Amino acid sequence: MLKLLLFLTMIINLSAISEEKRKEYEKRDQYTEATRNLIRVKDWKTNFNNLNKLGPYFMKEIESIKSLFNLSEKDFSIFCTPYDTICPPLSTNHTFIKHQYTIKEYYSFINTLKHKNPNQAAYLIYEIYDLETIFGITQETIYSFNENKPELAITYNPTYKKTFETLKNIHYKAQNDFDLATNILKQNYTDNNFDTFMLKFIEIHKLATHAYFNLHNLLYKCIYSRSTEEKNKYCNYN
Asked: Which UniProt keywords apply (predicted)?
């Protein structure tokens, strides 16, 4: 009887932990979507403060990024293959893995900026990583649309296909514009270079998030939804 009670107690505790984790994941997802819905402006401090107001996750990420600022350029050139038996400890640092490429790619620019204003440098890295994540998720949505080929929906309403093509082109334009804009970050840091990048970034972010949200809504909340078009706001793309 005692063993049974202990077993039931363990199950209840595990369920409580599982529910707590689920709620935490939900909060994190809601925060992430809120950050991507947030309109960016030229002034990085305004963006910084607005992101900070959305929840504690932003400053935690900023502080994690700043913890990398004492590393050298050589540290960011570390490369480990899956077959390495011995690899530097940095290769297991989650923050390092997330941002290694960005800091390595724009090291001179970021290295100067981190001495001028660590928060500003960390903010820049944060935005670049999240924008590239948005691009990746959007590309997966495009692949899903192409692979699953919702032909019945497209046949029933050809405007879905037209909308899909329009949003896909917006996504690719944002990617191309971002590739061009990051050339600025390969130069030496100046206040003017940073401001020029931010002017381009706010427009790119607007395009990227437009494609990100609307492609997802079109595919998963409209075409694959059981709701009728009349009741489903995600089907209205006029």
From this structure: Plasmid
How many angstroms separate the CA atoms of 9 and 234, rounded?
A: 44
The strand ranges marked E within 104-160 are none
Which of these, 177, 133, 164, lies nearest to 36 by C-alpha position?
A: 133
**Cα–Cα distance for residue pair 73/75, rounded to 1 Å:** 5
Closest CA to 183 of 169, 201, 171: 201
Q: What is the pLDDT along the chain (238 residues), one digit of tens a residue?
A: 545 455 445 555 545 456 676 677 788 889 999 999 999 999 999 999 999 999 899 999 999 999 999 888 888 777 766 566 666 677 677 888 899 999 999 999 999 999 999 999 999 999 999 999 999 999 998 888 766 555 555 665 677 778 888 999 999 999 999 999 999 999 999 999 999 999 999 999 999 999 999 998 888 777 766 555 555 666 665 4
Tally of CB atoms within 10 A around 3:
7
Q: Which two tokens stand for residue 28?
A: 């994190």
Instruction: Determine contact, residues 167/211, Cβ cutoff 8 Å.
Output: yes
Domain boundaries, the chain: 41-80+88-235
**CB neighbour list of residue 155: distance below 8 Å, 6 or more residues apart:** none
> Residue 214, SS3?
helix
